[in-house]
Structures are given as C-alpha cells and as structure tokens.
Amino acid sequence: MRLALAYAKAGTIEYGRYTPYSIPTLALPAVLMLVFGHQVVEGEPERMVAGFAATALITVALFQFGVGIALSRITPWETYLRTLPATGPTRIVGRILAALVFAVATVVVVMVVGTLVYGARFAPWRLGALSLALVLGSVPFGLAGIALGYWLPPRSAMPIANIVIIPVIVVGFLWTRPPDNFPRVPDIASQLTPTRSWAEVLDSVSTGDHPLPLHHVAALVGWSVVFFALAWWGYRRDEGEQFG
C-alpha cells in the first residue's frame, strides 16, 4: 500500500502541474452546466447537479485513465517503473487514488456552482446518499477508462475520448429525463447503456421521486464485471507485448 500511495502522490503532482489536463478537468463539467443548465434544469436542479457531477467523474475516467494510461505505456519512465517492485496492480491502485483527488475536486466545483447558480439544495442524508451513488456508479466507467487505456493506440486515445464522451452522456440521458413520447426501441437501447443505468440511480437518489431501481444497480454491477475483464485482458496483453 505504501508503494501505491507513493505512486498516487507522484501522479497527483504530475497531473496537477500539467495545466492542459488539470484546468479543463476541473472546469469543464461546471462550464457545461453553466452553458446548458438553464435549458435542462426544468425545476429539478438537484437532479441536474447530480448528472453533471457524474459527467465530471466520466471525464476523469476517460482522460486520466483512458488517455493517461495509453500515453504512459510508450514512455521510458513507464518501462522503468515496470522493473521496480511496484507491480501493475499497485500502479493501477496508485493511479485510481490520484484520480480520486481530481474527481472529488471536480465534483465539489459542480456542487458549488449548482448551489450558487441554480439553487440546488440537498439534505445532509440525501447528500450522503448521492455521494455514495456517485462513487459506486463511477466504478464501471473507471474500469472502462482503464480498458481503453490498455487497448487504444496512444495517438488515438485523446481524439476517441473526446468523440465518445458527449454521445455517451446524451444517449444515457444523464442531464435530462427521457421525453414522455420517447420511442420504445430507442428507449430500450438507451436503458442498456451504463450511463442510463447510472442516470436512473442518480435520479432516484437526488430527487426521491421513485424507489431505487435495483435492476439498474444490477446492470451497473454487470458492466463493472465486463469492463474489469476487458481491462485485465488489455493489461495482460500489453504486458505480453512489452516484455514477451
């Protein structure tokens, strides 16, 4: 654990100093909420804030894991790290801990903007439940980011992450509720995505309008298993290509 903490500290300092990553990561979800929030709030600022907080976590997952791992795989420093006692899982744990720093900071920025600009209010117990839903719901997306990092070529990681993030959010209705007249087939396709499952869970937790959808909770668990398998397979594949 000591090595993982050391790796996390180094990663936090590295990403914090790299302003093209740190500033957009911290600011982008809040900026998106300021731009689109008045169009999607519809009298439910709490639900909207929860959705943009989830957007913040997806951003961290895709860029710090997906792009970060893809780019680091080809660096001499990463090759050197593989000769040290810090194993692959230890380095990944360290990367996750470093990502948590940025994730928490980004979510706090979204919460502050949502409170000051849109008047979102959360009772203490509901804020705790929302925090738990955000943390647990982000697990499949973090694993998906790790999988992308080990499967994507380094040069294509950044453009693919930029292309994927908005469609994933829109298809899953992370910012808004699906319209009442939404066609059945597209709605079923949307509900099969991890983003929609997370949106439904956050909707229940942030507003209390309906019970927790356990089938969507189960879907998130299932997606976590799938993405974990892909991440582990990608890691083992990369190890084999690098060291035979």
Separation, N- and C-terminal Cα atoms = 27 Å
The rough form would be described as: globular
| Number of structurally distinct domains | 1
Uncertain residue segments: none
**Helix-strand topology string:** HHHHHHHHHHH
Number of strands: 0
Strand content: under 5%
Strands, helices and their partners?
Elements lengths: L1 H16 L1 H22 L4 H28 L3 H6 L6 H31 L5 H14 L1 H13 L2 H18 L12 H8 L2 H14 L6 H30 L1
Molecular structure report:
There is one protein chain. The chain has one domain (2-243). 82% of the residues lie in helices and 0% in strands. It has eleven helices and no strands. Helix 2 (19-40) runs antiparallel to helix 3 (45-72) and helix 2 packs across helix 5 (88-118). The protein is globular, with a radius of gyration of 18 Å.
Structure summary:
The protein has 244 residues and is mainly alpha-helical. The protein has helices spanning 2-17, 19-40, 45-72, 76-81, 88-118, 124-137, 139-151, 154-171, 184-191, 194-207, 214-243.
Which tags fit this structure?
244 residues; mainly alpha; 11 helices; 82% helix; globular
